[in-house]
Amino acid sequence: MSENAYVCPYCQSENIQSYNIAYAGGFSNVNGVTTGVGIGVGGRVGVGIGNTVGTQQTALSMMAKPPMKKSIAIFILKWWIAIQFGLVLLLWISGLSKHEASLIIYFGAYALLIYKTYQRYVWNRDTYPGLRRDWEHTYVCLRCGNSFLL
């Protein structure tokens, strides 16, 4: 048995790779041109050209995807629009009169938005760094496919 600490704990293979290398190495740029000729029923000939441009990602790279922070700005924007739309709908249903219930619901929705935004902020501050650190120390065995922390 090898003295190397960098071996798979399941199959003892030294053929392992860190998640960050597996993720970054799994992307390829694709750029291709396709041409074709076809003959129709009436004997007419058609020619076509197609262009393919994009990015390809391997299954290993998808598996090794890093943890992502929770977006705060997009979250606030989506829910602000939803609350505004809900207020317009609520005022339209209630005959465009500002009932106390409508305002309570409106301010309650904003209070909930502020609370949920704070939860996301705390998750990004407290939980995300540990997940990111674990991801940076996670390896995948290229022989048996198991993932493990070193």
Short key terms for the protein model shown above:
single chain; 150 residues; alpha+beta; two-stranded antiparallel sheet; 24% strand
List the helices and strands and how they pair.
Blueprint: E1 16-18, H1 19-24, E2 27-39, E3 45-57, H2 59-63, H3 73-93, H4 100-136, E4 138-141, E5 147-149
Antiparallel strand pairs: 1-4, 2-3, 4-5
Termini separation (Å)? 18 Å
Proportion of residues in β-strands: 15-25%
Count the beta strands: 5
**Shape, per Cα inertia axes:** flat
Q: For the report, how would you describe the main beta sheet?
A: 3 strands, antiparallel
Strands side by side in the biggest sheet: 1-4-5
Q: Overall pLDDT, averaged?
A: 88
* Helical fraction: 40-55%
Give me the Rg, rounded. 27 Å
Secondary structure category: alpha+beta
**SS element count, helices:** 4
Low-pLDDT ranges: none
What is the H/E order? EHEEHHHEE
Structure in words:
The protein is of the alpha+beta class. The chain contains 4 helices and 5 strands. A 3-stranded antiparallel sheet has the order 1-4-5. A two-stranded antiparallel ribbon has the order 2-3. α3 runs antiparallel to α4. It is flat and about 70 Å long. It starts with 15 loop residues before the first strand and ends with a strand. 6% of the residues are buried.
